[in-house]
Design brief:
Largest sheet: 6 strands, mixed
Order of helices and strands: EEHEEEHEHHHHHHEHEEHEHEHEHHHH
Strand content: 15-25%
CATH superfamily of the largest domain: P-loop containing nucleotide triphosphate hydrolases
Number of helices: 16
Distance between the termini: 17 Å
Number of strands: 12
Length: about 450
């Protein structure tokens, strides 16, 4: 790591009551002596000082602020760290950053550099760092809960536990490689084969939890399909409580897919309205229908919406045959039906709504939330949140499945070594410089 001292605004730039400027590195305490009259040799760590900040050249007062000093290694980065809590004025922030830029060996932090330094100083592993990034980006309560869980070491403990098992068996094999005149006892062979098989099975079960963790970060995909004039755009408008889509009695008004991000009972949802499905000759509408069918393939939950007055669920037979996830059948325009007709539809498991008059919309949202919740809680509770985890775990399983004693013991040891290395890529227990830039580059400047 570089010996330079870095600084950055850690809060959003703009007018606010308080802004936080963070300084980290070997010279961090010198920022205090440059900006205040405090004697840095007498400053108490983790103690808040309320002081007037001044320009070291002109001696002009810049602001009154709280200053906190965290001595290494007891800080977020593991280095000497100073936090200045000043007023969130653009002029104040600009002036303070200019002073810091003028100090020797000080420079502006790069994106994610604070967290990267914390990783290098063993303050947390890569999964916790990515959990922190997810927490900063969290927009719903479920995203917040799972990000905190990951920050606290849920995934780290799981993956490191698997890796430790492999390293234990690898150490045994290495011992026998060093003393080739000794033969592996049969009970050791049986135990090792059994443990590797169970470990491979555990990783496969973890992988088979699907993409729920990634969906929790990116949003569960709920797609509405149906014939023209079934009320798909009206439903979208009712759900988002605004005119997000054009509603018309003219068939084929919606020509493209409209994606809206929603928070449904704490879960992030990508709600998509699509073009009406029908046979047409219009080239533009054909493209819209093709887009709709592609959206169906990507959906986690499909809402098959139809006009209760003239259609039935039979119009979705072809889609139902090929769609692998859950389908909710929804009858729209129920305001035109008799109570008996509505009761019959409900008995068949069909939801009834009136998008135009906002009837049954809350019940539909509850059903969507229930479906997502059941899928979210059906796994082990420790979910894959990134594709790189999936890639590393898949590679680890391949190496474990290759493990046997039907070949040279050196090759058997290499299978375990490669599997352990793949698990180490996830937490950062090996040399992983090639992925660090990508991970920490997604952070904001002050983090």
């Amino acid at each position: 790591m570089t010996a330079s001292t870095i600084y950055a605004l850690s809060t959003v730039y703009g007018k606010s009551g308080v802004a936080v400027i963070r300084i980290s590195g070997p010279q961090a305490a010198k920022a205090i002596s440059a900006l205040t009259d405090l004697d840095i040799s007498k400053i108490k760590p983790r103690y808040a000082y309320f002081k007037t900040l001044h320009n070291p050249q002109s001696k002009e007062s810049l602001d009154q602020a709280l200053i906190l000093y965290f001595k290494a290694p007891h800080s977020f980065t593991g280095e000497d760290l100073v936090e200045i809590q000043c007023h969130g004025s653009k002029a104040v922030i600009k002036a303070l950053l200019e002073v810091l830029a003028s100090l020797p060996d000080f420079r502006m932090a790069e994106p994610g550099e604070y967290s990267r330094r914390a990783f290098y100083n063993n303050k947390f592993d890569l999964t916790a760092a990515e959990g922190l990034a997810d927490l900063i980006d969290a927009e719903t309560s479920e995203q917040q809960k799972y990000a905190i869980r990951q920050m606290e070491g849920g995934l780290k403990n799981l993956y490191e536990g698997w890796r430790e098992q492999l390293l234990k068996h690898l150490a045994h094999l290495e011992a026998f490689i060093d003393f080739p005149e000794e033969e592996l006892p049969q009970d050791v062979i049986d135990t090792m084969l059994n443990d590797v098989f169970k470990l491979s099975s555990s990783i496969k079960e973890h992988l088979n939890s699907g993409s729920v963790g990634e969906r929790l970060r990116e949003g569960f995909r709920v797609v509405v399909v149906g014939p023209p004039n079934a009320g798909k755009s009206s439903l979208l408008n009712a759900v988002v409580k605004r005119e997000a889509a054009i509603v018309s009695d003219i068939a084929g008004t919606t020509r493209d897919a409209i994606d809206i991000n929603l928070d449904i009972k704490g879960y992030p949802v990508m709600f998509t309205d699509t073009a009406g499905l029908r046979e047409v000759e219009d080239e533009i509408e054909q493209k819209g229908i093709a887009i709709a069918l592609n959206k169906v393939k990507e959906a986690d939950l499909l809402i098959c919406l139809f006009d209760a007055c003239k259609d039935s669920v039979q119009i979705f037979e072809n889609i139902a045959k090929s769609f692998k996830n859950k389908i909710l059948y929804v009858a729209n325009k129920c305001e035109t039906l008799t109570n008996e007709h509505c009761a019959k539809l409900k008995k068949e498991g069909i939801l009834t709504i009136s998008a135009k008059y906002n009837q049954g919309i809350e019940e539909l949202m509850d059903e969507i939330a229930t479906e997502i919740s059941e899928r979210f809680t059906s796994g082990s509770g420790l979910l894959l949140t990134r594709s790189r985890y999936r890639q590393a775990l898949t590679a680890a399983v391949e190496n474990l499945d290759n493990f046997s004693f039907d070949k040279e013991i050196e090759l058997s040891a290499e299978d375990l070594r490669l599997a352990a290395r793949e698990l180490g890529k996830i937490t950062g227990k090996i040399e992983v410089d090639e992925i660090l830039d990508k991970i920490f580059g997604d952070f904001c400047i002050g983090k």
